[in-house]
Design brief:
By secondary structure, this protein is α/β, with parallel strands linked by helices. It has a single domain, classed as Rossmann fold. It is built from ten helices and six strands. The chain has a six-stranded parallel sheet, sandwiched between helices. α1 links the parallel β1 and β2. α1 packs across α9 and α6 packs parallel to α7. The longest helix is centred in the middle third of the chain and has 25 residues.
């Protein structure tokens, strides 16, 4: 049951592919908390996913957009503002795709053309979304933008490959654009660094099962699930976090600040 945390607020959710995705669960949570929504994803993802099912539940239109295409983003903003009858209050950027990972290219042998596409889709897309909203004055004062990231932006996780670079760039865009948007319109921009999560996209990382098991043992509270992340994102869209901006917020059960745990030592000694 919701608490009207987002009553009267409106926003765009990028990246809801299926019921496993954090964006999907966030849309459900925001709807439960009283928000009005627009759902969007890339045309290929719309064909692959089940977003129309989600749209029916949360009573939201679906507007397809390639996040690397400025014209698509302009059409998305225009359609959203028409649906909402004006500006809106929040954006979730839940987007990431690595061609080198998909095609099995090792980090030391990456294809640089693929890498440019990865950086464009996974990181610079946030800049393009923010730039479009900025140019069109689409976000209301005290709006909130959240992008999903991972601790591989700060630490080495070998099989995360070029996505580590993409997440580092994503976090930099968050800080830089967050500064300018804060000065201009009190809009706050943050990233949430989530635990490894069993989503359709996350499961594509090599050795994911071992990876998530290790993170569970290294986290005092255990891994943060997708539902918990959706709750956190809803909080970040609310007025209770009006003064939080340009931050990378770890939502990982304590993993990011734990050196070692008894569970890991016990496993290593066995």
């Amino acid at each position: 049951m919701g608490n009207n945390l987002l009553k009267g607020k409106k926003g765009i959710i990028f990246g809801a592919l299926d019921e496993k995705s954090i964006a999907w669960k966030t849309a459900l949570r925001c709807h439960e908390e009283g928000a009005r929504l627009v759902l969007t994803n890339a045309p290929v993802a719309l064909r692959m996913g089940e977003i129309n099912k989600l749209a029916d539940i949360v009573k939201a239109p679906v507007i397809g957009a390639d996040v690397t295409n400025m014209e698509d983003l302009k059409n998305l903003m225009e359609g959203s503002m028409k649906h909402f009858g004006g500006g809106f209050d929040f954006i979730l950027h839940s987007i990431g795709m690595s061609l080198n990972v998909r095609k099995g290219k090792h980090y030391t042998e990456m294809n640089y053309e693929w890498n440019q596409k990865t950086l464009d889709i996974s990181a610079m897309s946030l800049h393009k979304v923010l730039r479009t909203a900025w140019d069109m004055d689409a976000l209301n004062e005290w709006g909130s933008v959240v992008a999903l990231t991972y601790i591989a932006a700060q630490r080495v996780f070998p099989d995360y490959n070029e996505m580590a670079d993409a997440k580092a760039l994503l976090e930099s865009v968050t800080r830089m654009f967050g500064y300018y948007y804060g000065v201009k319109k009190k809009v706050r921009v943050n990233t949430i660094s989530q635990s490894p999560t069993r989503t359709t996209a996350g499961s594509g990382v090599k050795g994911f099962d071992g990876f998530i098991s290790y993170a569970e043992k290294m986290s005092p509270l255990g891994n943060a699930g997708a539902d918990d992340c959706a709750n956190y994102i809803a909080l970040m869209f609310s007025d209770y976090t009006r003064m939080v901006t340009m931050q990378n917020l770890f939502h990982d059960g304590g993993f990011s600040f734990t050196g070692v745990t008894g569970a890991v030592i016990e496993q290593m000694g066995s």
